[in-house]
Prior knowledge:
The structure is a homodimer. By secondary structure, chain A is mainly alpha-helical. Helix content of chain A is about 50%, strand content about 5%.
Amino acid sequence: xxxxxxxxxxxxxxxxxxxxxxxxxxxxxxxxxxxxxxxxxxxxxxxxxxxxxxxxxxxxxxxxxxxxxxxxxxxxxxxxxxxxxxxxxxxxxxxxxxxxxxxxxxxxxxxxxxxxxxxxxxxxxxxxxxxxxxxxxxxxxxxxxxxxxxxxxxxxxxxxxxxxxxxxxxxxxxxxxxxxx
Amino acid sequence: xxxxxxxxxxxxxxxxxxxxxxxxxxxxxxxxxxxxxxxxxxxxxxxxxxxxxxxxxxxxxxxxxxxxxxxxxxxxxxxxxxxxxxxxxxxxxxxxxxxxxxxxxxxxxxxxxxxxxxxxxxxxxxxxxxxxxxxxxxxxxxxxxxxxxxxxxxxxxxxxxxxxxxxxxxxxxxxxxxxxx
DNA sequence: TATTGTTATACTCTATAACTATA
DNA sequence: TATAGTTATAGAGTATAACAATA
Lengths: 181, 181
């Protein structure tokens, strides 16, 4: 399970306030509000590129591990295989990734980025960087690193795995059978 | 629209990673991950009291404005009136709040906390405070205030209203007709 | 005719489980 | 018999719109 973009439902923000004590004085309250806002901001920033945060995440994983199979993606994305099908379908229909049959075991797909997919991914990454800068403009430059440090510490306290390199993070939690590619 | 608890869907966390650059170095990425975790932690902490974050929020609003009507709650909670019905139903069935007809205009309900409701709310508030402390244990004491300050600044940049006193925050955005109680 | 609250309906997202094809 | 991927189904959660009561 990779940490990730919070789901910011477009139609209507499902937000609920704690309203006790001073909300502006609660780390939990502020984090959940801001987390939602950050998620939504990212989603909006990414929209012009034609990607959802989830598609972006999937493409990043494929980029890091070309030839990865759908089943493996299941873990870091934290979604069941049945849902992956649709997401991969969308990206394939857009010509951003392709499914190649693995000749050695024809049950597996090997996912690859197309040239167009790589270009789109690069554009999306630039957009993500720009969004990060825009989001952080209210901060003093000197404020940024300490903030990140505090957030990292809180994340560790919540057992949130931070980096998690795709597919490779926990290669053999149960170690069943031959590792699919 | 009040800032609020992020929706942490129980069945399965809908999380998606950005996975570009170092996620542990992105404020946006960390915030959305942590926001989700914070939201979930709060939800879990509140569960033993028998309240969802949304119910808790509603009760806090009623506590601050006894006799408030359902329609007014719509704004700070950011949900349509039709959904409010169910939430109020639940709380009423549990005997935590009651609907009284407003004799002056029998279209309105006047919502009030019951004695049991007040007791439950107090318990929930204690739980929220405890949860806040637990969540923040990874932080050095000296780290906490600067973190809050940075978060507040980011929230302001995202136009997130912080305190928002229930029902009273934006009493007349359009000013249509007599203000319901 | 307008407004509060309610009910009905439809739509989206999701997970679980049945299915296929390969092995 | 077991596994990768797919399709089918059902259950939440939600918004929109029609509705009833009151003004």
